[in-house]
Amino acid sequence: LTLAAAQLGPIARDASRESVVRRLVSLLERAAGHGCRLVVFPEMALTTFFPRWLIEDEDEVAGFFESAMPNAQVAPLFETAARLGTGFTLGYCEQVGAGDTMRRYNTAILVDAGGNIAGKYRKVHVPGNPEFDPALGLQHLEPWYFDDGDLGFPVFDCLDTRIGMLICNDRRWPEPWRVLALQGAELVLLGYNSPAQLPDYPRQNALRTDHHQLPMRAAAYQNGLWIVASAKAGHEEGCDMMGGSCIISPSSEVVAVSSTLDDELVVYTADLGLAGEYRDFFDMSRCRRPETYGLICDRRGEGDPLTAEEWARRLRHPAGRDPGT
Ligand code: ING
User: Fold this and answer.
1) 15 φ/ψ angles, rounded to the nearest 5 degrees
2) What is the pLDDT of residues 154-177, one digit of tens each?
3) Ligand 1 pocket, 195 CB below 6 A?
4) Which residue among 24, 37, 85, 149 is least packed, with the fewest CB closer than 10 Å?
């Protein structure tokens, strides 16, 4: 399956949807010219990364959200996909309802080669601070704007493969990848907006690219997944955003990577069979021991060590086994 990460350069705060959609259509057409069947656009691909500001003008905030998808402004993208037979994933800001029951999500959709929406994911790990904090060098106010995703980590059968989607910060956590793999995903598509520097964590700055690639390389290997990760990159409204859009093989290798901080295609023809080969190597259904992993679901964060008795209680009746006999 020939895949592309369609990296985007910066999007200005006042950029019109029409101008952004023209860039996306151009990338989709170029990708189809390379034989791509599936193109991955970044997180929040229709707008600037506005959670870097606390915007009090509700009209401006509402202007960053889509309350219907597709809609008239993004229609050219869907028409291009159908005409070329090339699917895509698109990150955007989703508004559901209005007034007291309104919900807002950081969302990605999967659009199939016929130009129809085949799946939706809403970001689960919404990072940053819930309120403006003057002590911080960098505001990252996603929880101010977005509700936590409420669709779980669904998978979709599309283009003769099984696909999951994740968004940006999700990639840094091991759990979502495993939950997708446990449903047979072999390809995970992810968009991101990651600051190139973290003024509040300066010791991480030299490791930004490692901290981007490392969890995805590990996830690809440990779960037998192909991963396509697509950046919103470059100098956007005074903030430097990482590039490094890449395609990662289940072997853990970064097989293709972007070289600019602007609109750029990263293309690779993936052997999907490799996902199964690594899955067979680990043989999860034989070797995983979910009865020993319970703390992962019982606890959100760190707590007291379990005593030997508590471990024994947890392991007394593991599914299908009785160590006492
Ligand atoms: N961006 C960030 C990321 O994980 C983040 C999250 C928050 C980074 C606070 C630094 C500081 O790369 C997104 N869009 O999730």
Assistant:
1) -65, 135
2) 999 999 999 999 999 999 999 999
3) yes
4) 85
- Give the residue carrying structure tokens 């911080």: 136
In tens, the pLDDT along 217-251 reads: 999 999 999 999 999 999 999 999 999 999 999 99
The strands making up 187-192's β-sheet, listed across from edge to edge, are 155-158, 161-167, 187-192, 226-231, 246-248, 254-257
Q: Give 39-79 pLDDT, tens digit per residue.
A: 999 999 999 999 999 999 999 999 999 999 999 999 999 99
- pTM for this prediction: 0.96
CA distance 51 to 18: 21
The SS3 of residue 269 is strand
Six-digit token string for 293: 């992993």
Q: What are phi and psi of 309, to 5 degrees?
A: -65, -40
**Which pair of structure tokens corresponds to residue 20?**
């952004």
DSSP assignment letter at 19: H
Spatial distance between the Cα atoms of 150 and 131, rounded to a whole number of angstroms: 22
- Residues marked active site are found at 43, 123, 168
In the reported structure, the alpha carbon of residue 125 is separated from the centroid of ligand 1 by a whole-number distance in angstroms of 10
| Cβ(215) – ligand 1 distance below 6 Å | no
Contact 261, 290 (CB under 8 A): no
- How many beta carbons lie within 10 A of that of residue 199, not counting itself? 10
> Which token pair is 110?
């999967």
Query: In the chain, helix, strand, coil percent, each to 5?
Result: 35, 25, 40
184 lines ligand 1 (CB under 6 A): no
Pocket test for ligand 1, best of 138, 168, 201 (most atoms within 8 A of CB): 168
Q: Is the CB of 193 under 6 A from ligand 1?
A: yes
